[in-house]
Amino acid sequence: LTFIIYHFSEESLVYDDEQEGLNKQIVIYFSHVVAENTPKGLAAQKFAELVEKKTNGRVKVEVFPNGSLYSDDEEIDALLRGDVQMIAPSFSKVTELIPEWQVLDLPFIFKDYHDVEKAFTGDVGKQLLAMLESKGIKGLALWSNGFKQMMSNRRLLIEPRDFYELRFRIMPSDIIKKQFQLLGSEPIAVPFDNVYSSLENHELDGQENTISNIYSKGFYRFQPYLTISNHGYLGYAVMVNKQFWDHLPKEIQKKITEAMKETTIWNLQQSKRQNEQQLAQLRKNHRIHIYELTNTDRKKWKSQFAPLYQEFEKEFGNHLLRQIQKEEG
Ligand code: LMR
């Protein structure tokens, strides 16, 4: 078998399934930033196995975890250049390319996993993925990590005023930036790879992330106050370079699509389980103080965040927002 890695700057991409293309192996580089033992890390591995099996080894998916190939502020450009064929950045990172994706960063947009599943696998998901096409990206699926929680090294975060004047690490997303500004804190965008060292060096007072990322990257070592707030959702846009995709034989596209469907169904269940199991692990650590928001607390947070919804609607209209809310019933 000969290995081909496609680089799109070259004319040689023209690919014919009939002749020699038939037995040439197609290699997909899949780059991501999280640990292997996370919802995205495991889904990427599962997808790679399924694709290999379904194509009898014709397609090989090479997964590069932990930002070992590209960090999260480089990976979208790397995909567009064709240096990697596949990535799965979090929604927030897609908002730099398509600002409407901020709808998914609105705090309390999803109340439970059921809402998440509906949006990700239904019409809303399809519309969001279709928006990627004009940017040169084929969107394959939305994957799930989990609900985000709040952490700090200063104090337990219970009331909106507890956030006052604290420096929070954020992903690059205007809505998330405004969310912390509304709380009187200072949001600082930091790539995922640098969060650990920024926490270690006391450059930040807090951050929001899923239990899975907090656990697998050891953020809890520097952040003893954890609030189970479930205020936001961390999910991923699984995407392929469109030019690469369009040149794949139809039969291969079909197999990859099948593998992606199976992986996505599995990921929705697995991500929920993994966050629950890792929260149970964190609960055993007596150095971590855990507080769960009550309904009364949540009401206060929600009313603090209400202007974000108004601003979003003013900028992008209410179409996607209403559709998500309608699906939630
Ligand atoms: C983060 O930057 O905190 C996350 O988007 C990392 C990830 O990919 O889960």
From TrEMBL:
Any one GO CC term of the record: outer membrane-bounded periplasmic space
Protein's GO biological process: transmembrane transport
Segments forming a coiled coil: none
Keyword Disulfide bond found: no
Keyword terms: Membrane, Signal, Transmembrane, Transmembrane helix, Transport
Gene3D superfamilies reported in the protein's UniProt record: Bacterial extracellular solute-binding protein, family 7
Family designation: Belongs to the bacterial solute-binding protein 7 family.
Protein name per the record: C4-dicarboxylate-binding protein DctP
Taxonomic placement: Bacteria, Bacillati, Bacillota, Bacilli, Bacillales
